[in-house]
Amino acid sequence: MEIIKGGVCAAKGFLAGGIHCGIRKNKTKKDLALIYSENRASCASVYTTNKVKGAPLTVTKSNIADGYAQAVICNSGNANTCNANGIEIAERMCELTAEALKIDKTDVVIASTGVIGQPLSITPIADGMDKLVASLGRDNSRDAAEGIMTTDTRLKEIAVSFEIDGVECKIGGIAKGSGMIHPNMATMLVFITTDCAISPKMLKRALSTDIASTFNMVSVDGDTSTNDMVTVLANGQAGNTLIDSECESFDKFMKALNSVTVYLCRCIAGDGEGATKLLECEVSGAKDEANARIIAKSVICSSLVKAAMFGSDANWGRILCAIGYSGAEVDVNRVDVSFKSAKGEIEVCKNGAGVDFSEEIAKEILLEKEIGIVIKLGDGDGHSVAWGCDLTYEYVKINGDYRT
Amino acid sequence: MEIIKGGVCAAKGFLAGGIHCGIRKNKTKKDLALIYSENRASCASVYTTNKVKGAPLTVTKSNIADGYAQAVICNSGNANTCNANGIEIAERMCELTAEALKIDKTDVVIASTGVIGQPLSITPIADGMDKLVASLGRDNSRDAAEGIMTTDTRLKEIAVSFEIDGVECKIGGIAKGSGMIHPNMATMLVFITTDCAISPKMLKRALSTDIASTFNMVSVDGDTSTNDMVTVLANGQAGNTLIDSECESFDKFMKALNSVTVYLCRCIAGDGEGATKLLECEVSGAKDEANARIIAKSVICSSLVKAAMFGSDANWGRILCAIGYSGAEVDVNRVDVSFKSAKGEIEVCKNGAGVDFSEEIAKEILLEKEIGIVIKLGDGDGHSVAWGCDLTYEYVKINGDYRT
Question: Would you say the ipTM is above 0.85?
Fold first, then answer.
C-alpha cells in the first residue's frame, strides 16, 4: 500500500469539482462540491444517529436504497436541517444535478453542512449548476474538498493505492470536520471513491465495520451532528474480480479503506474547532474491545482533559477521573497512564496512583502538536484508539458567535 | 417556608468554623472546614458514581453505616484521591477531629476537594486542629463555606425555616461547585444541617429522592468528579415528633430540603468555572419524567449550546441537535423552543422548524445573566429542569493550567 496524490480523483473514472455559488456570503470560500463517476458505482453510506436528521440524509438514503450511485453533490454554509421545505429542496438539488450530468436523479448522493434551521434557497444552486459541472476535472479533488469545508482550517484529502489479484486499485477520500463532531454509529461528511470492483452488499459491510473503530472514535466537542454522513463509491474501473463475499481480496480492501479513514479521522480531530493539538488516546489491556472504546472515548471527550492538554499540563488525575465515570468495567487500581509525543514518553500513573516524574520533561512532551495518551489496564486484551483535540479559547470564540 | 440567615448554623445545636491551615499555598484562602452538632444526629450521604473514588468517601461510608454522625470535616486544596496512603490519611483526619471534639471517630463525616493524585500531608491538619475547633461558632457558617471552596468565586450558603406539627424547624446548607461538575446519582460537596427530628432511614429516603431532580440535574463541564458527596445531618433539636415513616411531616421536610437543594444547584451552576451566565433548561410535554431529564441534561451539557449562550446567540438549531442525540424518545417534529430572561421571552422554534423572530430582541434577552431555555414537547406530561452555565474563555484559562 502506498500513499498517492489525487484524493477522490485518484481512482480511475472519477472527476471532482467545487465552486462558490453564493450560499456563503464570503465569495472567496467555495460552497458547492461535486464528485462524479463515469459509470454507476456500488454505493454505501452510514448516517448520523441523531434523531434530528438533515433532509439531505433522508433523500440520500432513499436514492441509494438500490446500492448504486453515480454522483455526490454537497453544499456548505447551510445544513438544510429543521426547515419545513428541506426534503423538497434536497430533491430539487438532486434533479438539477442529474439533469446537468445526464444521469438518473436517484443516482445522486446529496449532503449539506452549515447552520441548522435557516431555509436553503435553491436559486444560487440552480444558477451555479452549469459552472459546477464545468469545474469537474481529474485534478480537482481539492476544489471539492474546499467546497465542503465549514470552520475547517485545513483541507482534508488522502489517497492510497493497493493491489488485488495483481491488479492496482486506488482509494481516496475527502472530509470536513471541525465542530459538532462526536460521531455515533456513523458521521461527519466524508466522501470516499475507489475503482475497486466490489458489490454494494460487501461495500456496505466494509464501511459499517470500519467506522466502528475509526469515525466513531473521534470527538471534537461531544455534539453528534444532524447532518453527518460517510459515503463510499466503488466504480469497478480497476478491473479486479468483483469482491462479492468475505475473501482475501475483501480483507485487502478493508485494509486500504482503513488507511484512508484513519488518516481522515486524524485530520478531523487535529483540525477540530479551535484546536492546537491532536490527541490520540490508546487503551490496551481492557476487558474487551467494547470497554476499551468506552474508556478511550471518555478520555478524549473530557473537557478537563482537553483543557489540560491545551495548557500542556500533565494533569493525569483528570484522565483517571474520566476513566472512572466512563461506565466501562475497569479495575481502577490497575490503571497505568503515560503521555507521549515526538519528544518521548513519560509514565505519570502506575496502578491507579501517581509516580514521581519530571514535570519539566512532561511539559516538553506535551508542548508538541500531536499528543498520545497511553492507558494500560490489567483487565484483558481489549484495545482501542480514539482521536480528539484540545479545548481552547478559539473554540469558545468560534462558537460564541457562529451565525452572525 | 421562609429564607433565613445562618447557613449550616441556622438549625439549633449546630456550630461551624473554617481556617487556613496550610494545605493551600495562598494564605488568604481557608482550606479546612468543620461542622459540629451538639448531639449525635441522623445522617445520610450520597456519593459520586465515579469508579475512581476519593479515599474520604470510602471512610465516610464506613463511619456512617449506622446512620449517625456528629461532625463533618472537609479540606480544600487536595482531593486525597489516587494516593496510595489515602485511606490512612482520611482515617487519621477523623481520629484527630474526634479527639479534639471528644466524640467517637466513627461519628465523623470526612470530605476532601482539590487536585487529584497528590499525596495529602497530615501535618498542617494535625497542627491546625486546635485552631479549627476554636473557630467553631454559631455565626460561622460562612467560614466553613469558605473553607471548602476551590475555584468557586462565590460563597454558597442558604437556610430556610419551616413548620412541622406547629414546631419551627430549620434547615440550611453550604456547597462548593465550580469544576468537574456533572453529578451522576449523587455529588458535589454539599453539607446540610437541620434540627428536624427524622430517622436515619427516612433522612436517607428524603435525600435520595431529592437529588434525582436537583444535584443530578446540574452540569458545568460534563466531568463527574471523584470526590463529590451530599451529606445531611439532622439532630432533632427542634423538638418535633420524630419522622419515621412517609407522612405529612415527611412531605413538609422534603419540601424544605428541596428549597435548599434547588437554591444550591442554581448557585453551583451559575458559579461554574468561568461562567458568566446561569442556564436553566425546562422541559415539559416529554413522554415521561425520565425522558424529560435526559433531554434537559443533554441541552445544558452541549458545548455548542453553552458557547452560543456565552455569545448571546439565539442558535436554537444546536438545541434541536442536542435533543436529537440525547437518546430520549422524542418526536422531533413537535419540539417548540423559547428563550427567556428578565427581559422577556421569545419563541424561536415551533414544531421542529424555525419561526420568524427578531434577532435584536433575542439578543437583548440573551444578554442577561440568567437564561431560561424552555422546551415544549408533544409527547406526554413529563417535566424536568436542569441547570448549567455558559462555556467561556475563562473556563479554558482556569483549566489549561490548574495545577501550576
Answer: no
